[in-house]
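sry for the spam today, last one i promise. C-alpha cells for design, 378 residues
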C-alpha cells in the first residue's frame, strides 16, 4: 500500500481483494441519486407552473363572466347563460351579445398582448422599468390617429384604427433604425441606444400630436376620449381588424422566448452559444410592435399593464421566458378585465374608463417598484 494512493482505491474489502466501493451516493443502476433528485425537482417545478397556468385560466374565465354580467344594467348569471346559449332577442340578450361580449373579448386580447409585449420589452432592454411604449409605438399611434382626424375628418375608432396601427409601425421602425445607427458596428440596437432612441421619438411625436390638437377643436374632442384608453364602445369589427396582427405577434413572441433566455446571459455569452443576436432582437421587437400597435390602435393607450404585469409574472415563474410570457399574458388579461369591471362599479350608474382605473392601480405599484433598494436585475 503506497502513500498518496486515494482512499477509495487503496483500501480493499477484507478477504475479497475487490476495491472498496465509492463513498458517494449511488443507485443500483449506476446513476447518482443527486441527478435523480434534480430531475424530480425539475418535474415538480414544471408541475407547479402548469397548475399555476390552470389557475390563471380559471381566474380569466371568472373575470370574463364578471365583465359580461356587471355593468350599468346588472344581468343575472342565468340571463347571461340564456343570452349565450339560447338567445331570444330580449333586452338582456342584446346587451350581452352586442355590447358586453365584444368588450370582454377585446379586453382579453388587449391584456394578453400588453402583458406579453411588456415582458419582451423589459427583456430586450434589460430595464425593469421599461414598458411597450418605450419603442415610441404608443405615441406613433396617437400621432397618426389625431392626424387622420384632423386631415380626413374621421371620428370613430373603426375609422382611424388602421391609421393608428400604421403610425405605431412606422414609429417602431424609425426607433429601431436610430438605435442601430447609434450602436455602431452594424450589430443592431443595444438596450441603451434602443431606450434613448425610443425616448427621443416619443417626445417628438408627443409634441407633434399636441400641435395638431391645439390647432383643431374637433381633433381635440375626438382624441381626448381615445387617449384615455377604453374597451367600451368597440364592436366586433374593431377586434376583427386587429386580431390577425395580435395572433402573429404572439407567435413571434413565443418563437423569441428561447433566444431571449440566451440574451439574458449577456450578448457575448449568447453569441458563444451560437445564438444569432440581431435576428433575436428583430423578432422580439417586431412582436412588441405588432402586439402594442394593435392594442393601442383598438383601445387607446392603456398604461401600466406592460410595466406591472411582467414583474408579477416573474415573481411566480422566475426568469425563464418560455413560462414568463404565457403567465404575463394571462395576468394582463385578468388585470385589464378586473380594472374594467371595477370602473363600472365605483361610478355606477356611469363608469370610469379602464385606462383611468389601470393608472390608479399601476401608479402605487410603480412607486413601490422604484423605491425598492434593489431593483430586479434583468
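last one done:
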Amino acid at each position: 500500500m503506497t502513500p498518496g494512493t486515494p482512499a477509495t482505491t487503496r483500501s480493499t474489502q477484507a478477504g475479497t481483494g475487490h476495491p472498496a466501493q465509492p463513498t458517494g451516493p449511488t443507485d443500483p443502476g449506476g446513476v447518482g441519486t443527486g441527478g435523480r433528485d434534480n430531475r424530480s425537482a425539475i418535474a415538480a417545478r414544471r408541475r407547479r407552473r402548469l397548475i399555476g397556468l390552470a389557475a390563471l385560466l380559471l381566474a380569466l374565465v371568472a373575470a370574463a363572466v364578471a365583465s359580461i354580467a356587471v355593468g350599468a344594467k346588472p344581468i343575472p348569471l342565468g340571463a347571461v347563460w340564456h343570452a349565450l346559449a339560447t338567445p331570444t332577442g330580449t333586452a338582456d340578450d342584446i346587451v350581452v351579445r352586442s355590447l358586453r361580449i365584444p368588450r370582454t373579448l377585446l379586453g382579453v386580447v388587449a391584456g394578453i398582448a400588453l402583458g406579453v409585449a411588456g415582458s419582451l420589452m423589459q427583456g430586450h432592454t434589460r430595464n425593469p422599468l421599461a414598458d411597450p411604449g418605450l419603442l415610441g409605438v404608443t405615441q406613433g399611434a396617437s400621432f397618426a390617429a389625431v392626424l387622420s382626424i384632423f386631415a380626413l375628418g374621421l371620428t370613430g375608432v373603426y375609422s382611424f384604427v388602421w391609421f393608428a396601427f400604421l403610425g405605431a409601425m412606422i414609429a417602431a421602425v424609425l426607433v429601431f433604425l436610430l438605435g442601430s445607427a447609434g450602436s455602431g458596428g452594424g450589430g443592431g440596437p443595444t438596450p441603451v441606444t434602443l431606450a434613448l432612441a425610443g425616448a427621443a421619438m416619443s417626445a417628438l411625436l408627443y409634441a407633434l400630436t399636441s400641435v395638431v390638437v391645439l390647432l383643431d377643436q374637433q381633433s381635440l374632442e375626438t382624441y381626448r376620449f381615445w387617449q384615455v384608453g377604453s374597451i367600451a364602445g368597440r364592436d366586433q369589427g374593431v377586434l376583427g381588424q386587429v386580431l390577425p396582427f395580435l395572433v402573429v405577434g404572439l407567435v413571434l413572441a413565443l418563437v423569441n422566448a428561447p433566444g431571449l433566455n440566451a440574451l439574458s446571459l449577456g450578448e457575448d455569452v449568447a453569441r458563444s452559444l451560437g445564438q444569432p443576436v440581431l435576428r433575436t432582437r428583430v423578432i422580439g421587437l417586431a412582436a412588441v410592435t405588432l402586439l402594442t400597435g394593435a392594442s393601442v390602435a383598438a383601445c387607446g393607450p392603456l398604461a401600466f399593464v406592460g410595466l406591472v404585469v411582467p414583474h408579477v409574472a416573474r415573481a411566480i415563474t422566475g426568469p425563464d421566458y418560455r413560462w414568463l410570457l404565457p403567465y404575463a399574458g394571462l395576468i394582463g388579461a385578468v388585470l385589464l378585465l378586473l380594472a374594467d369591471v371595477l370602473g363600472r362599479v365605483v361610478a355606477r350608474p356611469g363608469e370610469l374608463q379602464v385606462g383611468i382605473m389601470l393608472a390608479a392601480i399601476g401608479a402605487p405599484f410603480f412607486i413601490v417598484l422604484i423605491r425598492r433598494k434593489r431593483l430586479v436585475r434583468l
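The chain is about 75% helix and 0% strand. ok im logging off now
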